[in-house]
Amino acid sequence: MEIAMTILGENGLSRWIEYALNFLMGLALVLTLTLRWSIPAVTRHSPGEEGLWFEKYFVVLLLSGIMAMLILWQARGIMHIINKGDPFVPEMVRRLRVIGVECLVLAAFYFLSVFVVTRFFMVVVFVTFSVVGLILFVFAQIFRQAIAFKEENDMTI
What we know:
Layout: H1 2-7, H2 13-33, H3 35-43, H4 53-84, H5 90-113, H6 120-156
Helix pairs in contact: 2-4, 3-4, 4-5, 5-6
């Protein structure tokens, strides 16, 4: 039980993860807002060049940044629920499903992007977010069943 206390609780790992998610949301915002300058610095492509590589990267990274912030927002909400001490609530199921949908939206976008920006990492991101999105739907269903069992158990007592 002592291990559970260091993972969960006010000074546990779960609280630090919630803080880290806040930081990552801020970092994602900064990175997304600075794409105009970071893309040329990293890729050596500028706006208006032949092949429109800057514009392609900009669209892909802009949507990725926005989706990352939305996913991190939901993940932070999940950690907040856990840190309150009762993870078996309908809001947990909703947040897991929302992240699952966001992952699948991002996966679909990367699938379509493969035909415009033909890079191997696009396929890897597509597969990864597809699998994670589907797994999150399974986790949401498990939590939904756990909530039903908990409610049934609470009524029995």
